[in-house]
Amino acid sequence: SQQGEEDPQALSIQEGENATMNCSYKTSINNLQWYRQNSGRGLVHLILIRSNEREKHSGRLRVTLDTSKKSSSLLITASRAADTASYFCATDASGANSKLTFGKGITLSVRP
Amino acid sequence: DAGVIQSPRHEVTEMGQEVTLRCKPISGHDYLFWYRQTMMRGLELLIYFNNNVPIDDSGMPEDRFSAKMPNASFSTLKIQPSEPRDSAVYFCASTLTRRSYGYTFGSGTRLTVV
Q: How many residue contacts between A and B have a Cβ separation below 8 Å?
């Protein structure tokens, strides 16, 4: 399956700490995306990284991509209680008719 | 822009009834997707449209499910007849181009079939 798999499944940290979440996938990709979902809400797009990119930043977010290891990581620096949410990686596999497929998600809890 | 708008937010229906979920994508977005989210299976793509044309419906679970996009600003997902195993949160999402931008999701419709 081309579906990304996130690790860990759940993460609990103290406010101010950094949170690192990982995603592994199986097939060649066009791009990889990270989304956040607050409880009872829709998914919010955070960042898209293309297969020819190695690192992207957006505010407190840093995403890396290692296509040789078929893995990505999402780092949230200086976490806040408001970062508490589920985080999903989604892979857009190479190929004209590929679909964006989502992993099962990581539950992040940031304690005040 | 108001974002992707879905209705209703919640739907409770009896088994065997017809259910219609509605979606208004962001104006100008060429792609529209219907996803279903459950605890067991996560997020599953059901069908997606490009310029109002269905491109891939291989994720539609059964013939009981159908989706239409009569124009660029409206799409429906219909389940007839509904079954308890259809209970899930159904999301609609849209994007400008499929590989250059992330998807914008609606708030979802929580469907409960009793």
A: 49
